[in-house]
Structure formats: C-alpha cells, structure tokens
Amino acid sequence: MVQPSVMPAQPVLPAQSAVPAEQPTLVGEPDDRAADGLALAELRRVWGYEHFRGDQAAIVDTLIDGGDALVLMPTGGGKSLCYQVPSLVREGTGIVVSPLIALMADQVDALAALGVRAGFLNSTQTHEQRRATEAAYRSGELDLLYLAPERLRGEETARLLDSGRIALFAIDEAHCVSQWGHDFRPDYLQLSMLHERWPTVPRIALTATATRETHAEIAHRLQLQGARHFVADFDRPNITYRIVAKDNPRAQLLAFLRDEHPGEAGIVYCLSRNSVEQTAEYLAAAGVPALPYHAGLDRHTRASNQARFLREEGLVMVATIAFGMGIDKPDVRFVAHLDLPKSVEGYYQETGRAGRDGLPSTAWMTYGLADVVQLRRMIESGEGDAAHRRRQGQHLDAMLALCETVTCRRSQLLAYFGQEGRAACGNCDTCTQPRPTPGTARSPPRSCCRPSCASTAAGSATAPGTSSTFCSASAPPASSNSAIPT
Ligand SMILES: Nc1ncnc2c1ncn2[C@@H]1O[C@H](COP(=O)(O)OP(=O)(O)OP(=O)(O)O)[C@@H](O)[C@H]1O
Ligand SMILES: [Mg+2]
Ligand SMILES: [Zn+2]
Questions:
Q1: Which PROSITE patterns match (predicted)?
Q2: What is the homologous superfamily of the domain 16-232 according to CATH?
Q3: What digits encode the pLDDT tens for the residues 341-371?
C-alpha cells in the first residue's frame, strides 16, 4: 500500500514561506451551531454518538458554511466524521481522496452498515463495478464517493464529477502531498487542480502527522491559503513510550510480549521483508499467534492477514511500514519497533496505531547504532538528489535524537510537532527510569554512526540541542528547536 519514497519532482517549500506558525490555531470547545443543529442530529441518528469531540463541531460548521479547513489531529482523533457529517448535511456527494485503496471497500461497507450511501472508484474494481458506481454518483444516489488519487489524473474523472453534484472535497492523509514528509505520493501534487477547477466547492485536508514544515507544505501545495487551520493536541497520554538498547531483539520482543502484553493484539514493525517473515515465524514457534504483512506478499495474503488482524482477538501483526495507515482497530495494545524508523513522523504515526480506544498501551522499540549505520548507508546509496538525501539524513538525525534523549521522550516528541513546553510526562522510560548521561548502561555503545566516519567515542560530540552520537567531524546542522530538522 505504501509506495517507496520518490525523488522530489520540485524543490521543497522553505518552511518560512507558508503559514503554520502564524495561522490561528483553533483548538477547544465545539461551536454551538453544529453542537445543536442538523449536524448533531445526523451524528446521533447515523453514528449514535451523543457529542462532537474537540474541534469536530467547528470543522463541520466551517465546511457546511462553504469554507475550507486544514485539520491536524492525531491518529484515532476522529477525522473521518469531520467530512462525513458535512457530506450528509450539504447537498450532493462528498468526494474523498484517499491513498488507502486496500481499505476503501471496508470503509464503504462500514458506512453502508450505518445506512450511509457510499461508493468508491479505484483500480481493484471490475469495469462493471466502476460503471455502476459512476451511475449512482450521476443520479445523486451517493452521500460519499472515495477516490484513489490517481483517478484524478485524467479528464475522465473530472467530467464524471461535473456530471453530478459535489458537496465537498476531503483530502485524507494529506501529508502525502509533502515531499518533506515521509509518505510522499506524486499523485497528491495534482490535487491543487481541485481548487482550480471547482473554486466554490469547500475542501478539507486532514492528517495525523505534520511538523511545521509539512503543515506549511500541505497548505501551499493544496492552495489552502484561505482555509481555517485546526490543530489538535498531539499528545496520546495513554501511550507509554519506551526505547531500549538493542541486544537480541527477537528475544527482547518475546520477553516484552510475555511480560507485558500476553494474549493481546499489537503490531511489530521491521525494516525488511525478510526480517518480517523471520520474526513472524519466530513468534509463532514461541506460541505467539503472529502474521506477516509486507508489500512482497500477494494481494490475497495481505488482504486476508489484514482482515484477520482486524477481526480476531490477540493477533500480532509483524509488518513493514506497508501496513497500518488508516487501520481503525481500537484495541491495539502495543506497537513494537525492532528497527529504527526513518523519521520521527513515521515513528509517531506508527506508534499512534496503539490505544485508539484510550486504554493504556505501549510504544516499545529496540535501538542500536548498527541500525543508524544501516539507514545512513541506505540514504547515501539511495535514489534522489543531494537535497533529498540531506533531508532524509535530517529526518534520521531527529529520530536518533529522540532515541538518545535524557529528557522526557513525550515532550521531545511533541516539541518535534511544534507543541513545545510540556512538563515531563511521567509515562515514558526517560521519566520513570532517568539515566544521568547518555552512554551509560541502557545506551548503545557510542561511536559515530555515520558510515563514512571512523571516529569513536573519544572524538565524539553531541548534536547541538540533542544528545545524539555524532563525531565532531560529521555533526548534523544545528537545530534551533530540540529535534526539528532545519
Ligand atoms: N464524536 C465522537 N464520538 C464518539 N466516537 C467518535 C467520535 N468521533 C470519532 N469517533 C470514533 O473514533 C474512532 C477514530 O475515528 P477516525 O477513524 O475518524 O480517526 P482518524 O482521526 O481518521 O484516525 P487515523 O489518523 O488513524 O485515520 C472511530 O472509531 C470513530 O467512530
Ligand atoms: Mg482517518
Ligand atoms: Zn516522559
């Protein structure tokens, strides 16, 4: 599902050239109108929920009134209702652009079960299925129509949309438009055409991960300059963050599962397909019900493993990052990383799949400098121009800084997303088991992690503003703000 990262086609937007820091951030109580009116009636009638959460009511009102919105809300925060409810209230069909092709059928089925008339158009359908959905749209029989972004590449889909009535455009997983971010999809770049072609149709862009840079890039690339920005609190207080020194990672994982989450559902992320397969086999042999998921498995196996994970209890999904975006399973009790994610955005999004039900959950990771060396080699020998590689290196530096921090991990994570100044949380390992300095018992052996550099601990220095392990010869650029790459 997740495509490999792609070489940037255009220069990345400088962070200061767009909006986020200056934009009003609207956080807080629901607006009265949506809280009392037709939208609330729909929320209660269709979903059976009593109240809107957080910013939902204000966002719903903005769209019902014909305005644009840019929504940053953590995983499981309730972004879907922000466009589903106005699609029911406004005349016409809400058009939802989403990269989650493998989930569209499930999403549409779930809506149908609630009595919402929804359809989708993507490459998994037969010609007849597509034609039937198009006919339903034209005759005004759909409340919501989900589209894969590549559908909007040709004139054919635009003509189809013109042949019906559009209530709004929702651009889900909007961080995919960002070349700065970690999930870039080239097809998202053309979504600015929505505004050019249908300037009066309200638009909403939604994502669960956005640094200031990504936030700015979303606003800029989707031409959302006039939109209201809604930025929710990114803290997930029910998730405990822990990062341990990598020793024998599979044995460490097994001990973690047996000690802390026996019989519970969770996700284990590995960097390579090979490692996914071997880890799933290792766990299964040790009596832990585990399934593999990666892009190299055939479509049927992937769909079947995903469906089992969603429906059965207590399964462990061992996966590459191809798994997880948009998965709405409430009781994922842990997310474990056996390898270092490539960016803090990726780490936050992946760990955010734990504890959507609000109950205590664990984000656990093993980390060793060998991971960093491996990732740096991949970056240095990977595709893309020098600027692209430099950006990837900065992402990795920030991830490394999070691993090596001696201060509260949660506050550092939130600061990365621009929510600075939090007190120590008391619910992460650096809070509950403080260590005096990096390089002690729980810390991996220190030597410079850049493969091109042979320095060892003697010549090493910490990255400015962080406690990361870089030798002075290869220290990353100074970061003004904890781990934010500059
Ligand atoms: N106002 C509400 N009252 C009760 N439950 C809600 C409300 N809004 C959303 N939910 C529930 O919260 C869960 C998460 O919602 P949703 O799938 O929209 O999250 P999301 O923000 O899109 O997350 P992700 O980033 O993972 O896609 C769903 O099960 C949804 O039904
Ligand atoms: Mg969502
Ligand atoms: Zn903490």
A1: HELICASE_ATP_BIND_1, HELICASE_CTER
A2: P-loop containing nucleotide triphosphate hydrolases (3.40.50.300)
A3: 999 999 999 999 999 999 999 999 999 989 9
